[in-house]
């Protein structure tokens, strides 16, 4: 199967040697997104809920570039700087899905890029 790199200026440019997303057949693998505003290149959120809002907007932009949306997402991974942020992140995250939520794990990690509190990656599948 052919591998297609997905890139959009409406999500932050990668801060390392990786792509925003890679599409293989009907599967889309989206790299972890943090709360960088793609217009300014800055971290502007002041709390975990604000970070999650920006992260989800970034993910939405990548999905859109690939011709997909949140209803196509089958798996997410949420990385948190502290599990105490779970409820506020979960509340914002949940607003982006109508129902039929994707499979997911949420883990607390020692550190995240740019010292953010939230990073989310996704796998989506375009229906036939």
Strand order of the largest sheet: 1-2-3-6-4-5
Mean pLDDT across all residues, rounded? 96
Fraction of residues in β-strands: 25-35%
Taking pLDDT < 50 over at least 5 consecutive residues as the criterion, the unreliable ranges are none
Radius of gyration: 14 Å
**Largest β sheet strand count, sense and barrel closure:** 6 strands, mixed
Along the chain, the helix and strand elements come as EEEHEHEE
Number of strands: 6
Shape: globular
Number of alpha- plus pi-helical segments: 2
Structural class: alpha+beta
Give the termini separation: 16 Å
> Roughly how much helix do the residues carry, as a percent range?
10-25%
How would you portray this structure in words?
By secondary structure, the chain is of the alpha+beta class. A six-stranded mixed beta sheet has the order 1-2-3-6-4-5, covered by helices on one side. The mean pLDDT is about 95.
